[in-house]
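We modelled the chain as a single entity of 317 amino acids. Its sequence is:
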Amino acid sequence: MSYAIEVNDLRKSFNENEVVKGIHLRIKKGELFALLGPNGAGKTTTIDMLSTLLKPDGGTALVAGYDVVEHAKEVRKKISLTGQFVALDEGLTGMQNIIMIARLHGYTSKEARAIAEQLIQSFALSDAKDRMVRNYSGGMRRRLDIASGIVTQPEIIFLDEPTTGLDPQSRKGVWEVVRTLLKQGTTVLLTTQYLEEADQLADRIAVIDNGSIVSEGTPHQLKASVGGKTLAIRLAEQTDEATINRLLANHHHLTGFQGNDPLDYNIPVQEAILASQAIHTLVSNKVPIDYFSLSEPSLDEVFMALTSSKEKKEVVQ
């Protein structure tokens, strides 16, 4: 299979601090692959090496079939990078920003305007195209930034935490932009700290922690790797937490976790039959249950299981 990105034993250190510790990745053409991890995990350093901004200390990386060290110039022709901070001229309008970038890439004035008009419309910025970027909202700036990055129709787009600092509505607007890129066949490598973002967008996810990949798979596979399901219970009235946990422990060797709302409980179970038995036990002992549901673990639970401690990571690996 021909991959958009192939990474083997990639490493990078700053002074004595090894930030990326021999990671391996295979990213298919046309998929969205997410690097999910906490601050300082090595996500941005990895992106910077793959986009030729940093030279690796070891290992190899092929992007669009070109080695990032030996053929950096060819790699740059095939990619676009949108970083954590918007790179726009705030003294120009949205339209003028895209026209300027298109002209810098060698398009004629007529071609640049046509490209800008198309991108402005595609990214839902038509009403603001003649407004100065300094007056754009955060979400509008981010959409314009991504639009500017695809003037040359790159094969691969690196999005390094593109929705950091945006409100939920603006984040969803950026998600729609990303989905549009995927429909066009673009390969997207996304780094994010937002679990919902990775869950909503990614075909596959690699969880990176302390410079190493600790798990990789589809969102469903990662959730399944934690094991079991989650029984979520909503109580009709507040009940002593110790009473609930005593019943669960004595009858089924289960432990419940109270949510932020004292009426909510989450109970990890390995099998669906255990959920049924737990509900029966609680109801039989007059625990007032309003409703309940059974689901696979959330990506939040997966993330905590994979990154919370060295011991947990070793078990998963």
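As a brief sanity check on the tokenised model: The first helix runs from residue 43 to 50. DSSP finds twelve helices and 14 strands in the chain.
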